[in-house]
Amino acid sequence: MKTDHAAIDQRFRPQYRLRSGRDFQRVYRRRCVASDDTLIVHSCENELGHPRLGLSVSRKVGGAVVRNRWKRLLREAFRLRRPELPQGVDLVVVPRAGVAVDLSTVMESLVGVARRAARKLDRNRT
């Protein structure tokens, strides 16, 4: 059975990832940050027309199992909510330590904080 995935491609392809240290440093140097009780999001413009995601999950958040769960949740939230995220923006997401969350909380938080960060970018451009 063949399904039509051409309408909405929800895979987490490499072009949606920040992978190089240079990209992460560019986002951090831009110093545009927004946060809530769950996430801290650093943002920077890109010339690609689509958002990219970088993850920074430190040991402060927990052991390896907890950090890997956070990364899985953040990648899945990004993959499912990518059309709702600001376009043309690189996002480095840092989870807050000591917060127990589920996927719906992470999705809601990611979209809200990413939009606030993008508005800050727009304000700082002019």
Describe this entry's structure for a reader.
The chain is an alpha+beta fold. It has 3 helices and 4 strands, in the order αβββαβα. Strands 1-2-4-3 form a 4-stranded mixed β-sheet, with helices on both faces. A hairpin with a 3-residue loop joins β1 (32-35) and β2. α2 packs across α3 (103-125). Mean pLDDT is 86; it is low at 1-6.
Total number of helices: 3
Let me know the average pLDDT. 86
Structural class of the helix and strand makeup? Answer: alpha+beta
The ordered H/E elements are HEEEHEH
Short description:
With 126 residues, this protein is of the alpha+beta class.
Secondary-structure topology with pairs:
Layout: H1 21-30, E1 32-35, E2 39-45, E3 52-55, H2 64-81, E4 89-95, H3 103-125
Parallel strand pairs: 3-4
Antiparallel strand pairs: 1-2, 2-4
Helix pairs in contact: 2-3
Attribute tags:
alpha+beta, disordered N terminus
